[in-house]
């Protein structure tokens, strides 16, 4: 490659590859440019570990004439034969560059991955570590179909490219990790707002949203009667019945409070899609009820027998943003609408129903609900009309007043 072309590519990487918004776009442009300028690349892979409860890392694979393929690798890959016999496993064990001259059958017999490369015409493979500033180890791999494999000069060029590429990969990985952590601990929408700079107390918006407030009945008795690890396992499986349903239907989980869960389904200001939002929240509630029934069929029980839950659905204005004291903030929602949802959730428990709704929520789907009574609610001067699902059989006597 010409020296001026190499310098342009190195300068672009040293400046952070700012023209490429996504990580895969960095690899796409880099490999397209290197290939166009004479480096005989056939396959280039980048593997970056990430901090995520379910994902070990992300892989990016470039091939000429195709878009970069992006995949998530789960932790199970670490025990797979394909990985354990691959050159990357050796790289992660030693932290050193691994080269396999595929044309000469180096390591091919022991590695299904290398056998596949050779079958497709690959002649030379080199895996180079990407070492981040915190010492964590990641990897790049470079493959060619050139008849004699890579030359020494080409390998030296790849090594020169890898150094600034490592820094770019680290910057992108750190941002990705921040997004993953925020999504995991505060939710997607809240995470986006925090990354956008809403990190000061008082950064709040008034939004209209359907509110989901649920808890597990009998949780206190469960906590007092079984070992803590059993309680945690039951809770996790219980929340697994709710969180996927909420997020699938456009909701965002804001907070876990012991056995309680607070979520919102925001109403789009421009579309004013409150009816659709309430329909999606109700669908999530029905699916949660089915998931918990299935969990009971599998034999997961509380102290009093089968797991039972209650969810209250309401819609109204909430204050959504940073609330807290000093330098310890919480991104959540508050307001009278949240208070009312919490009060009527207690009514659900008293009524022995799994799903109930306020009058404001039920008016968007009148055919789906039946009235179950009016109740005095602490903090609200007027009695509140409460609605239940016709197929939700009450398991306890109705209480006429909720303190």
Characterize the biggest β-sheet: 9 strands, mixed
Mean pLDDT across all residues, rounded? Answer: 87
Uncertain runs: 396-403
Q: Return the CATH topology of the largest domain.
A: Alpha-Beta Plaits
Order of helices and strands: HHEEEHHEHEEHHEHHHEEHEEEEHEHEEE
Task: List key phrases describing it.
17 strands, disordered C terminus, alpha+beta, elongated, 29% strand, single chain, Alpha-Beta Plaits, 403 residues, Beta-Lactamase, six-stranded antiparallel sheet
Describe the overall structure.
Helices cover 39% and strands 29% of the residues. Strands 7, 8, 9, 12, 13, 14, 15, 16 and 17 form a 9-stranded mixed sheet that branches. A 6-stranded antiparallel sheet has the order 3-2-1-6-5-4, sandwiched between helices. Strands 10-11 form a two-stranded antiparallel ribbon. Helix 1 packs parallel to helix 6 and helix 6 packs across helix 7. It is elongated, with a radius of gyration of 28 Å. Strand 1 and strand 2 form a beta hairpin. The protein is an alpha+beta fold and 403 residues long. It has 2 domains: 183 residues, Beta-Lactamase; 205 residues, 2-Layer Sandwich (Alpha-Beta Plaits).
Topology:
Elements: H1 3-14, H2 23-36, E1 43-49, E2 55-62, E3 69-74, H3 81-84, H4 87-94, E4 98-100, H5 112-119, E5 124-131, E6 137-144, H6 152-185, H7 188-195, E7 204-217, H8 219-225, H9 228-240, H10 243-248, E8 252-257, E9 260-266, H11 274-297, E10 301-302, E11 305-306, E12 308-325, E13 328-334, H12 336-351, E14 355-358, H13 359-362, E15 370-377, E16 384-388, E17 401-402
Parallel strand pairs: 12-14, 15-17
Antiparallel strand pairs: 1-2, 1-6, 2-3, 4-5, 5-6, 7-9, 7-12, 8-9, 10-11, 12-13, 14-16, 15-16
Helix pairs in contact: 1-6, 6-7
């Amino acid at each position: 490659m010409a020296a001026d072309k190499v310098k342009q590519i190195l300068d672009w990487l040293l400046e952070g590859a700012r023209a490429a918004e996504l990580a895969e776009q960095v690899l796409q442009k880099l490999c397209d440019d290197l290939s166009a300028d004479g480096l005989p690349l056939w396959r280039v892979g980048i593997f970056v570990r990430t901090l995520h409860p379910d994902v070990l890392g992300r892989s990016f694979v470039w091939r000429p004439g195709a878009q970069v393929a992006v995949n998530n690798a789960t932790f199970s890959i670490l025990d797979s034969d394909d990985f354990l016999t691959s050159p990357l496993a050796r790289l992660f064990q030693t932290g050193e560059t691994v080269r396999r001259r595929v044309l000469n059958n180096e390591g091919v017999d022991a590695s299904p991955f290398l056998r596949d490369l050779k079958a497709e015409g690959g002649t030379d493979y080199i895996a180079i570590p990407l070492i981040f500033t915190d010492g964590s180890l990641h990897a790049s791999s470079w493959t060619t179909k050139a008849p004699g494999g890579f030359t020494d000069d080409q390998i030296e060029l790849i090594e020169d490219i890898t150094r600034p590429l490592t820094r770019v990969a680290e910057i992108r990985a750190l941002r990705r990790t921040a997004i993953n952590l925020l999504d995991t601990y505060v939710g997607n929408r809240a995470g986006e707002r925090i990354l956008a700079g809403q990190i000061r107390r008082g950064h709040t918006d008034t939004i209209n949203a359907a509110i989901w407030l649920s808890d597990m009945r009998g949780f206190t008795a469960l906590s007092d009667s079984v070992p803590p690890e059993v309680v945690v396992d039951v809770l996790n499986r219980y929340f697994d019945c709710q969180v996927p349903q909420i997020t699938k239907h456009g909701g965002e989980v804001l907070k876990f409070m012991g056995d309680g869960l607070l979520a919102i389904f925001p109403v789009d200001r421009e579309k004013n899609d409150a009816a659709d939002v309430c329909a999606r929240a109700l669908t999530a509630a029905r699916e949660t009820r089915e998931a918990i029934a299935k969990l009971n069929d599998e034999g997961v029980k509380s102290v009093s027998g089968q797991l039972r839950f209650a969810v209250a659905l309401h819609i109204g204005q909430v204050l959504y943003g940073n609330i807290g004291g000093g330098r310890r903030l919480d991104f959540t929602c508050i307001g009278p609408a949240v208070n009312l949802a919490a009060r009527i959730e207690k009514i659900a428990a008293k009524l022995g129903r799994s799903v109930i709704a306020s009058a404001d929520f039920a008016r968007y789907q009148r055919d789906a609900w039946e009235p179950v009574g009016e109740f005095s609610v602490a903090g609200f001067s007027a009695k509140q009309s409460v609605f239940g699902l016709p197929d939700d059989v009450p398991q306890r006597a109705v209480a006429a007043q909720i303190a």
